[in-house]
Write a structure and sequence with these properties.
The complex is a heterotetramer of chains A (about 325), B (about 300), C (about 350) and D (about 500). Chain A has about 325 residues and is of the alpha/beta class. Chain A is about 45% helix and about 20% strand. Chain A is built from 11 helices and 12 strands. The longest helix of chain A is centred in the N-terminal third of the chain and has 17 residues, at about 45-60. Chain C is built from 14 helices and no strands. By secondary structure, chain D is α/β, with parallel strands linked by helices. Helices cover about 35% and strands about 25% of the residues of chain D. In chain D, the strands form 6 sheets. Chain D has a 6-stranded mixed sheet with strand order 6-9-10-3-11-12, with helices on both faces. Chain D contains 17 helices and 24 strands. The chains are: A alpha/beta (about 325), B mainly alpha (about 300), C mainly alpha (about 350), D alpha/beta (about 500). Chains in contact: A-B, A-C, B-C, B-D, C-D. At the B-C interface, helix 4, helix 9, helix 10, helix 12 and helix 13 of B face helix 6, helix 11 and helix 13 of C. The complex binds adenosine-5'-triphosphate (2 copies) and magnesium ion (2 copies). The site of one adenosine-5'-triphosphate (ATP) has 5 residues of chain D, from loops.
Amino acid sequence: AGGGNAPADNGQASGQAPAEQKEEPAVKKRIALVLPEKIGVNPFFQQMDDGAKKAAEELGAELKTIESTDYGAIEENLRVAVAEQYDLIITSSFESEDALKKVAAENPDRNFAIIDTVIDLPNVRSVTFREQEAAYLMGAAAGLATKTNKVGMVVAMDIPLLKKWTGGFSEGLKATNPNAEFIVNYVGSFTDPAKAKELALLQASQGADFINGAAAVGDLGVFEAAKEKGFYTAGQDVDRTVIDPEHIVLSQLKGTDAAAYETVKSFVEGTFQPGVVTYGLKEKGVGVTYITHDSATPLHAFIGQEVVDKVKAINEEIVAGTRKVPESF
Amino acid sequence: MEWLDWSLVSSTIRMVTPILLAALGGALCSRVGIFNVGLEGLVLVGAFAAIVGNHFTGSLFLAVLFAAAASVLFSLLFSYMTIGLKANEIVVGVAINFLALGLTTFALRAVFDVKGAFYDKDMAGLPRLEIPLIHDIPVLGEIVSGHSPLVYLAFLASILLYIFFYRTVTGFRVLAVGMNPVAARSLGLKTTRLQVMAILLCGVLCGVAGAQLSLGQVTMFTEGMTAGRGFIALVAMMMGQSHPLGILASSLLFGFMDALSIRLQGFSLPTQFTSMLPYVLTIVAMFFLKDKNGGASSNQQSAR
Amino acid sequence: MVAVKELCKSLVQPLLAVIIGLLTGALVIAAVGESIIGTYQEMWKGAFGNFYFFSSTLARATPIMLIALGLALAFRAGVFNLGAEGQMVLGAISATLVAIYLPAPGIVKILAALVTGIVAGGLWSLMAGYMEAKFRIPLLISTLLLNYIAVLFASYLVSDPFQDKSGSAALAQTVMLEKGAWLPKLFAGMSVHSGFIIAIVAALLLFWVIRFTPFGYEVKMLGHNPFFAQYGGIHRIKVMLTGMFASGAFAGLAGTVEVLGAHYRFVDGALTVPNFAWTGLMATLLANSNPIGVIFTSILLAAFQTGAMGVERNTEVPLELASVIQAVLILFISARFSYSWWKQRKKKGGESHGVA
Amino acid sequence: MAHRLEMREMTKKYGDFTANDKVSITLGAGEVHAIVGENGAGKTTLMRMLYGMEQPTSGEIVLNGKPVAFRGPNDAIQHGIGMVHQHFMLFGEFSVAENIVIGYEPRKSGFFLRKDAAAKVRELSKQYRIPVNPQALVANCSIGEQQRVEILKVLYQGADIIVLDEPTAVLTPLEVKDLLQTIRNLAESGKSVILITHKLQEVMEVADRITVLRGGKVTGSVAKDQTNVDDLARLMVGRELQQLSERLPLDGKPLLQVENLTVRDKQSLLDQVSFTVHHGEIVGIAGVSGNGQSELLQAISGLRNIQDGTIRLSGVDVTNQSVAKVRETGLSHIPEDRYLWGTAKQESVEENALMGYQRKPAYYRRGVILRDAFRRVVQEWVNRFAIKTGSKQLNEQAGNLSGGNLQKLIVARELGHETPFLMAAEPTRGVDIGAMEYIHQALIEKRNSGDGILLVSSELSEIMALSDRILVMYKGRIAGELSRAEATEEKISVLMAGGSVHGSSQRAV
Ligand SMILES: Nc1ncnc2c1ncn2[C@@H]1O[C@H](COP(=O)(O)OP(=O)(O)OP(=O)(O)O)[C@@H](O)[C@H]1O
Ligand SMILES: Nc1ncnc2c1ncn2[C@@H]1O[C@H](COP(=O)(O)OP(=O)(O)OP(=O)(O)O)[C@@H](O)[C@H]1O
Ligand SMILES: [Mg+2]
Ligand SMILES: [Mg+2]
């Protein structure tokens, strides 16, 4: 394939949208979404794919999703996407950082976007989330709602990435209920609901009445344990309360789909800009059901309106900047 | 004893069941001279088939049967490749693991149109058996009663397998084939048939192990939900020297060490170290078992 | 004349196997209603389609090949090492740390890192060998268990003490190596790096050692009959430990070149998720522990992977299916198809379960 | 009398090599038929065809007047043919009774009735007067007992025709006597026995008919009373046997000095063993196997650590040194079990021959083994010892060589080291008389050239023929020493059984 498009692309990247809009209807914009792993156990990528697909469909662009089998495949897939002349290449996550840094630097005339982390290059748009803020709200709600003063969390793995969840949660918990005991257990795998369930059962037997799931697909195991033992739980990323409103009383939300949607949309509409966009509570890019976002299910009595109101207040403080949630832990 | 309460013991028993079943299956293979590294894949296939069976028939009994049948099908492939086509058993085992992961992931999408996990909160899992009298005894009841039938089956299986090996004619011949294949053949024993039978039986056990995982411990299927249990089963099998009761002991040993490591997570040690614990302690345990080593593993040494 | 005949005979088996594997794969593809030819074409393109893809295949083959070579030596000595994964990871992390923290010019860093990787992988493997020799802890068990320990330990190192704390610090990884410590790429813009050359040289060297040197002879004899070897004056433990060290060293080297040549930092999980260790094991077994054969089987297995990636990128065949096809192909190339197999097929029924 | 078995014009080819060439034999009920012949003559091959383990290239087997074809041992067993292999087919970790009934286990609804099995074995053992302990683990049984297990197994399987392939090669003289008696008993009770052996004395003692094979062909088939040992030997070897060279009188310096050698492994295996081998001397060690000979060989060669005592070779202390060190100091060693210690069966003749030479300066330069130079040497050994290597010559798998030829290869390899000291354990086990003569001659020549030899053999005739001095081992100790002049078979036998002999010169050390 020839590199004839390069000058046009260049113009587009520097934001000369009107000029380019004219010739556009003839040729569909081609967008590649290169995922750093398989869509599967991590709903995060499914959401991203959905969001991008939705935008592409609505706006008449062509979208190709490429899943990477492993770390080494990411760079390869990015390079191939460049070679195949996609107009915009979107990727995601920390795992893709190194690969994109290389590929984007080598191809300064092409457009890239990365979701969930920051790359400081003139041709890359970065979209990030401040999950710890939502986790903080979650912890705050848990601290207020717990009757036993014991709160648990089942986490996939003890890795830095997930510290945003455990750290934010723990800070929020301390803020509303300094006496509450926080029990954390790690599954050691993203794909082990059986062990996640056993860990939740153990935490319940130790007296936790609210156990937050952050074990990727293992959350399903935590939910099942909740159903069996009657404690309360919460899920991640999307509104999980619909699965079992009796026991899943909250969900921590992350608008990956919106981020992908917006990225595709801005590109097709010609407003695509390099630089950093972050989504936190303020931008409503992350949140917690009932507090920042509505839920399809009615509020459970375990949380109760009183708690919701108190946490809403905390949310406002964070949005206003009067209450600080640490960046890292 | 705050950090080693009885619910932990009961949890250990549940967690160890799939490992125990798969290890017993592995032992059957190793007793006929075949080192089966495909346990992980066989269990995974069983786990998936159990959910499919349950979903479409609504019968838990049929679901377990379905799980066993699916794993047996894979075992059939394993035995055809290794015995029929004389392929290297380790290559076939590894390929079976890859194949199982790929096929179940693919079928998850094809059958249920979901990626990653299939969870239906209305699907009934295996029932918990409350053993009448024992259930009311304080500690014992908590530990022994209230598990899925497959848990009891697993423990029963190790005893049955013991009886099979050391009391029945066919079991005796199976042992003979593994001990000295040349002599067994020269006696006109049907070595191939015995080997295939052992491999298929291994499939049954692995299938049941999968069913326990996806219908007993949880009620769902997720991609790669075996999470390395097949390899732990392999270790348990070798440590137990392919002896059914030895495997029972080594599986429990590993299970308890795993439980212990969970309890230690609360303390200030980095999780990586607590997670290491079961493996480290297993190696330490080997120091004390050293006198009895050799038997089962010596013929695997020359697997080439 | 005889040699040609022998060669043909030895080629029949793998060829038949590949054909049967492709046919089976075709069944799978047809079953989901995709184009068989189209899928295989993409597979071929993804692996060998043009120089770029070929070079990616070679890059992917590099760690597989090195691991396979180490295992080849161990297997020849009759030692079954299942611990390549741990040895690779431990070698890689040690080498990375040296490459980062050793205050020296780039080339020295590279050399020091290579040596460290080799030694770390070797020592870890040696430990298993020592436990077998001294305490009779079966290698098969200890190597398998040591994998978990090594991987967890490396994970600890990069998620706490040696973590890259710059930026988001969200990943368990070390900081990036400085450019001088990168193994050079063989061609600009292509992923294959000088690690591939190292692997090829290692294969030739190993072939020479096994074929022509006393050590190679001793390894071979030990593998065939340890009693005979001992009786003949071969120091069983010494050769076994050497074999273990060497196989671990190769695995450590594999991890090291992957870091120095491709990732430029140690990322938790980046070496374990692609299953290099098990793939390397298969490459060895398929090549019957022959170092020259290992070159080809490693490239073949790597091609299955890059080919599957090509299928994923350019067809509607889902990724899972690509991995199914890959597994099916591996399954069949391990089979011993031969003339006798055909003969056996034909007279099946009559001769059922006699003496094999 | 109708023949029970006829084998007509049996031919077996391995590739281009003809192992059996139109061999015909007949066997009547109650007959003991001996088959003798050189190593590699095709005796085992013939029997493997009879037992269904090999398919004949051509030929016919007629059993009780009906032609039969066996697809496997199972078929043969069903037709009443049983075989005791040259190398036992036993399961070490099973009991004697289990080994005997395997394949035809007494059972009740699938369960193995082990008590019945033991009872049946006891009964069978009494009926044929073949004593065994049904409960014992086979691994713990002596070789002789293992062989009885094999014979009982065949009888249990209902065999009328029993094939014994070199059954006496591994037995002690006493066990041989018992076995020959057993064979006679079996024949009397109507069984037919085919006996393969290299020991013509035994043949004359027990056989009714004798068939001689050479180069895959029958060279003669005679009734016992029409022949004698010398005729048979001539038929076998195709020439007259020669007398051993004269032994030169030599009075050499001490070469191997063993003092207070003690080996323990839970129980005591060697207890304060002391002796010396001089240059130009063959010291024979007689004894029933299992009395410490194996441990002694292993201790001297460095394969086993000793708990107490010293071993000096050519004046160098080699106590608890590695095998390599001991060999370097001047040891070569013909091992007692050629398959366990002496070869790698899957490897070629050449690779097997190379063992121990791979680092010798003559064959090793600049890190590389000099294959061409070495191959010439091996070829010479093959020619000199008349080793039949089969069609692939030096590339033939060692495991495909007949037992005796393999033994010759090992002897050639060890003699080739030209060390001052040779340890020869059962050097002629399983080799034909021609080869035996050759090996004996080679040992004598080595002695005459001033080297020392420690000869361990369960074959009394061999010990007596070769040794300058004879030590008898009993229960891990040296029970007595006899000079060549004073040694008689009787005296040695008494010592071997734990008795004492007056007038045995106690020239210890
Ligand atoms: N599987 C085989 N492939 C090739 N050649 C073989 C095979 N088996 C036996 N031979 C050859 O056939 C010949 C006859 O072997 P056989 O074992 O019958 O000899 P034998 O008379 O029993 O000798 P010995 O007295 O030494 O036991 C030998 O030269 C041997 O090398
Ligand atoms: N004690 C015995 N002595 C002699 N022959 C026996 C004895 N027991 C069984 N047989 C014979 O051996 C043959 C097979 O015996 P059996 O029925 O025990 O085999 P099997 O257990 O059915 O074999 P498989 O289960 O492998 O098919 C039969 O022809 C039987 O008559
Ligand atoms: Mg023979
Ligand atoms: Mg012989």
